[in-house]
Structures are given as structure tokens and as C-alpha cells.
């Protein structure tokens, strides 16, 4: 027990990765995807928020009683539990102006979007460029839009949506323009952008969107995806003609390869400050009870493919916390 | 006739792209690959070195009689000709210590390798990292190794080769280590590198080498390819688990999309100085006469797949110029 802390879990959220791991989608993949932390089962749940119960000898920044939040790790058990062991370098203090369940909706999607935009695609603050985010109202898309608009201050943040609710939600979440997923080249051409579309962030169906992303991407532009794909349709497209960069973002890379683990704690600390200042809004929209049935319902909600923002689960009465965003 | 110059061609070289365009490999590709500059035929030949005959009104830096070299462009006719029209922004003065035929071997491979390492993968000078170059003795590989070692000053430059001649040549060209193409993961593990293998440059058979490149690449590493591929084998590999960046490099992107065209001229001017100072060696190894038969022979040489360094073609007696490198 060195740099670890035990949390009493107050709230968690369900992410598509939980559903995929439960459904054994990656069973024939390398170790990463099938690691079982020291037992013959794995407790699911990445995102968590809770209260520190105990800390290891090396932990200086946190003590018993602190209210914290974290994104979890592929090498430890998850947050769908009463108690959870976490790496103390990867946690941060909970924003004071959010409930536990709102807080638990943020970490995984925020870190993923932040790493994608800032570390993988290396978008610069104030760059005169546009970003296109595929699936603007999803968990990741709705924080990515806020990072692009309010942290990186890009002048143009285009997201894709297909319903009135998701269009409205995505605009509240920072989109300056929305287009329909199915009409991407045409609707983007119509926008007649004054800045080049240099960055494209795929958070849905990589194989479907890679060819259109290539079409609308500026020469030397970058496409980042967070969604595994069997097909990778690039041959015969302009991907090479434009010298395009394609980059994978996976939240688990740092904890799995044990590099730069403390950056997750730092990102969440920065996020705490942004939320407390009102720069970033929480994308929590719905609360389930943190019970076996609540988990099943939340998994079904994510599996439906129509979830907006994030669904949280709380140990307390949802009615007391579940202040939906909209 | 604005920023253009007409050159009397003294020497050129044959690159694999000339062979591919001649063989109509990309006939069903987007415009880029099948552009025919204003006629119903295309004169082949990217690389050229020659003497300026005339310049357009806007040209300030060059005048008739200047000895220059250039990489050509997909939107103009090529260098397999007596006279050639080139964009004056993309040319530079010929190094004084090389013959025309030696000079004509440099531009395309140099610009490609430079863009790949410096612009696409953004390797930093003096970085404590290793690079792996697939096909170390090829035209591009043998200048890429020099850029990596002598310009970017990386401590470890590993190239792949499969014959004694190519191994020796690649070491003369800057490789600190060579491994066999066919034993990449095992031989690289054996090197027990003290720095992370962060950069991999594929200059042969992208589909074959992508999976092994992924295996040996450090987390968050970058793989750059210059070779079109139908298959893109990434699913089920660690490419996403390691959050790897894949980036295409194509020399033609700038002239085709008309962005940053002057950078080619600047790179060749920098190269002239490096060659004159003896930092960079020319990778020319063999000379053919610049005649219809000489061109056919040089195409056959490139098609054989066993060419070492670069083959040049000269209007003068090869014996007078063709000082092979080794
Ligand atoms: N690599 C990583 O580290 C990482 C991290 C987090 C998430 N992920 C992955 O990223 C993906 C997105 O996760 P998420 O939580 O943001 O998603 P999500 O919240 O489940 O996304 C739901 C939204 O998807 C949209 N959608 C449905 N079908 C679509 C289609 N064909 N094209 C585009 N959008 C469509 C819907 O919006 P409309 O109603 O407007 O169509 C819906 O509101 C998942 O595959 C997840 O596993 C990866
Ligand atoms: N995207 C761009 O802008 C751009 C620019 C330049 C070139 N290119 C492309 O880059 C590729 C390389 O061009 P180049 O001129 O450097 O090549 P090259 O000079 O024709 O390469 C010849 C060398 O390839 C090696 N080789 C043969 N089979 C191999 C294999 N299976 N695996 C690895 N190496 C093998 C041989 O070395 P051993 O005998 O040691 O095996 C041989 O000496 C071509 O496909 C070309 O079209 C693209």
C-alpha cells in the first residue's frame, strides 16, 4: 500500500467501455483489454466519486474524509462497489459546486477529450482553426466541445447530432455549429468556414466516418479516434494525398503502460477549478440508483445508443441529487 | 509566367513514383494521382538538376545561367526532358561540391525524409529517443538516416536491411544499428535500447510492417509511412492500446494543395549548405545516360526492388560524373 487510497464510493457513472467489457467484445485482443486484476473476475466501473477512507504510506495530498473523484484504471477493480482502491496520483478533490453523482459523470469523458484534443492532436490555445466533433451530444463529445470552445478557445466548434434534443444539448455544451451525422460533407461545405478545418475528433463508428472526415479535413490536418474499428477505409481516399495524421486516444494507455500517471490527477484538479469558476458545465443528465438494478438500467440506457450527456448512479436518493442538466 | 523558371535539364533521377505513374498503379484514385498537366500526356521525372534558361517576371532569386536543383511537382511536367518549367519557389542552388547527376539524386528523397521526420513526426533536435527506419539502404531511407543522425542528432538510428551491401551502405549513411527486415521484433528487443523507440518511418510495404512497428513502438509513439497500402492491419494490435499516431507523408501535398510551396526551396537551400559543409553525403551510387534507353534501364533497376541509394541519369558521359558513393 504505497501511493494508493481507498474510497467509499458515493456515485459512479456508466460508460460504453463498461458495456463492452461486460459483453466481452474484446475477448481475442491483447492483454490490455482482458486484464483481470488479481482475481478471476473484474469489478466494472471507471468513473467514481467518493470519500477517502484510508491512504497508503506515501500519500501526502489526501487524507481520510476528503471528497474526491477519479477515472479509474484498467489494472484495478472498478467503481461499481462500496469500497475501491485507487492510485492516489490519479485522483483530485471533488468540485464543491457539484453533487457526487454530477462529479462522477466527468472524469473518464473529460480526460479522454482532453488527451485527444490537447495531447494527441496538440490543438493550441487560440488557434485560428476549426474542429469537427462526431457525436456532439455523447458523453465525450459534450465535454470535448467545451474544451475546444472554452479552454482552447477555437473560433469554430462543429459537432454532429441527429435529433432536436441532441442538437440543443450540444449547443449548450459549446458547439458553435451543428450538422447532421449523415450529411457531413455537404453541410460543412455550406458553412463556408473562414478558418481551416484542421482537427476532427471521432467519437462514434470510426470506419463510417473516416472517409468523410478525410474529405472535409484540411491538408496536414489531424483525425483522432477513440472508437476501435475492424475496417480502416483509407485506400483510394485523399488521406495520403493530404498527408493526414490519424491518432488513437485511449484513456487507459497511461495507467496500463505506467507512464505519466500523475497527469490524470492534475487534469482533474484543473477541471475542478474550471467547474468551480463556471467555465465548464457538467454534462450529467440523468440519475439511477447505485444498486444492481440501477446498474442494469444504466447499462441498457447506454446500450440503446441514444443517451445524452452522461448517466450517473448515486448511493443516495436520486431525487436529492439528480439535477438533470437541461 | 510569374514565379517560374525554365531549366535546361542536365541530370535527373528515377524514383519509384515514376515507375508507378508509368504503370498506372493509381488509375482509380482521386485526381491527385492522375493529373495530366494541360496535355493528354505527362512527362515523367520528379528530381532534376540543370541550368536556368529563363525566369518569369516575379523571380528575384534566380537568373539565367544559375545552376539549380529541384524535386518537381505533381502539377507540372517532369524532368525527363531537355527543358522543364519549374516553380521558382521550389528550387535552390546546386551544391558546388557535387556533380549535376549527384545533385539530381537528392531532392525528392531529401524533402520526403525531412518532411516525414521534422514536419510530420516532429522529431526534436537532440531528443533522447530512437528512430527505426524500414528499408535503410533505399533512396529515402539513406537520407532519412542522415537527417536522424546528423541533423536531428538522435542517439539511436536503427535501419533495416537484408544484404551485406545494403547493411554496409546504411551504416555509411548514418545508421547506428541495423536489423533484418524479417526479424524486427526479436532483433530490436536484443538491442536493449537505453532510449524509447518513439519514431518509426516506413519506406516499404506498409501493410507488412505496420503490425511489427506497432509491437516495437513506445506508447504514444509515432509511425509515418510514405507507401500507399490497401490493407491497414491495426485491429487487434496494440496500436490503440498504445495511443499511437500514424501519419502519412507525401511530397506532393504542398504543390498539389498550394500550401507552403516555398518550403521546398528552403529545404533544398539548407541541404546545399549541409552538403557543402560535409554534414550530409550524397547517396548516389550509379549513373545511366539520360536517353530513352538509359531511362528504360533505370526504370528496370528501380523495378527490380534491389536498388541501393539512388540511380541518376546524366546528359554527359556517365564516366565523367558517375562517381559512385561507395
Ligand atoms: N478511447 C477511449 O479512451 C474512450 C473513452 C471514452 C469513450 N470511448 C468510446 O467513445 C464512444 C463514445 O462514447 P460516449 O460515451 O461519448 O457515447 P454516448 O454518450 O453513448 O453517445 C450517445 C450519442 O451517440 C449518438 N449517435 C448514435 N448513433 C450515432 C451514429 N451512427 N453516428 C454518430 N452519433 C451517433 C446519439 O446522438 P444523436 O441522437 O444526435 O444521433 C447519442 O446521443 C464509445 O464507443 C466509447 O466506447 C473511448
Ligand atoms: N510519399 C512520398 O512522398 C514518397 C516519396 C519517395 C518515395 N516514396 C515511396 O517510398 C518507397 C521507397 O522508395 P525508395 O526510393 O526509398 O526505395 P528503393 O530505393 O527502391 O528501395 C530499394 C531497397 O528496398 C529494399 N527492400 C526490398 N524489398 C524489401 C522489403 N520487403 N522490405 C524492406 N525493404 C526492402 C532493398 O534493400 P535490401 O536489399 O536490404 O532488402 C533495396 O535496396 C517507394 O514505394 C516509393 O514510391 C514515397
UniProtKB/TrEMBL annotation, chains A, B:
SMART domains hit by this protein: PKS_ER (SM00829)
Entry superkingdom: Eukaryota
Domain Enoyl reductase (ER), residue spans: 3-313
One Pfam family cited in the UniProt record for this chain: ADH_zinc_N_2
Cited InterPro entries: ADH-like_N (IPR013154), ADH_Zn_typ-1 (IPR014182), ER (IPR020843), GroES-like_sf (IPR011032), NAD(P)-bd_dom_sf (IPR036291), YIM1/Zinc_Alcohol_DH_Fams (IPR050700)
Single GO molecular function: zinc ion binding
Gene3D superfamilies: Medium-chain alcohol dehydrogenases, catalytic domain, NAD(P)-binding Rossmann-like Domain
Protein name per the record: Enoyl reductase (ER) domain-containing protein
Organism: Extremus antarcticus
Lineage of source species: Eukaryota, Fungi, Dikarya, Ascomycota, Pezizomycotina
Amino acid at each position: 500500500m504505497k501511493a494508493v487510497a481507498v474510497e467509499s464510493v458515493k456515485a459512479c457513472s456508466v460508460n460504453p467501455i463498461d458495456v463492452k467489457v461486460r459483453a466481452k467484445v474484446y475477448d481475442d485482443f491483447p492483454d490490455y483489454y482482458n486484464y483481470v486484476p488479481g482475481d478471476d473476475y473484474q469489478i466494472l466501473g471507471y468513473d467514481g466519486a467518493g470519500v477517502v477512507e484510508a491512504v497508503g504510506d506515501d500519500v501526502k495530498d489526501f487524507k481520510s474524509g476528503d471528497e474526491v473523484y477519479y477515472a479509474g484504471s484498467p489494472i484495478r477493480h472498478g467503481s461499481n462497489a462500496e469500497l475501491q482502491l485507487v492510485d492516489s496520483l490519479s485522483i483530485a478533490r471533488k468540485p464543491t459546486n457539484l453533487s457526487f453523482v454530477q462529479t462522477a459523470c466527468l472524469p473518464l469523458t473529460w480526460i479522454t477529450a482532453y488527451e485527444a484534443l490537447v495531447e494527441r492532436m496538440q490543438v493550441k490555445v487560440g488557434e485560428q482553426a476549426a474542429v469537427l466533433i462526431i457525436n456532439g451530444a455523447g458523453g465525450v463529445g459534450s465535454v470535448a466541445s467545451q474544451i475546444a470552445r472554452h479552454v482552447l478557445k477555437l473560433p469554430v466548434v462543429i459537432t454532429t447530432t441527429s435529433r432536436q434534443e441532441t442538437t440543443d444539448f450540444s449547443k449548450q455544451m459549446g458547439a458553435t455549429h451543428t450538422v447532421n451525422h449523415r450529411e457531413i460533407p455537404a453541410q460543412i461545405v455550406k458553412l463556408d468556414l473562414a478558418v481551416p478545418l484542421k482537427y476532427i475528433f471521432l467519437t462514434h463508428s470510426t470506419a463510417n466516418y473516416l472517409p468523410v472526415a478525410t474529405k472535409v479535413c484540411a491538408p496536414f490536418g489531424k483525425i483522432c479516434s477513440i472508437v476501435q474499428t475492424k475496417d480502416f477505409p483509407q485506400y483510394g481516399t485523399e488521406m495520403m494525398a493530404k498527408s493526414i495524421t490519424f491518432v488513437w486516444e485511449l484513456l487507459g494507455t497511461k495507467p496500463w503502460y505506467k507512464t505519466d500517471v500523475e497527469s490524470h490527477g492534475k487534469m482533474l484538479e484543473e477541471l475542478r477549478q474550471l467547474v468551480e469558476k463556471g467555465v465548464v458545465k457538467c454534462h450529467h443528465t440523468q440519475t439511477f440508483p447505485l444498486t444492481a438494478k440501477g446498474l442494469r438500467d444504466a447499462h441498457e440506457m447506454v446500450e440503446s445508443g441514444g443517451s445524452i450527456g452522461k448517466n450517473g448512479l448515486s448511493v443516495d436518493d436520486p431525487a436529492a441529487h439528480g439535477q438533470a442538466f437541461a
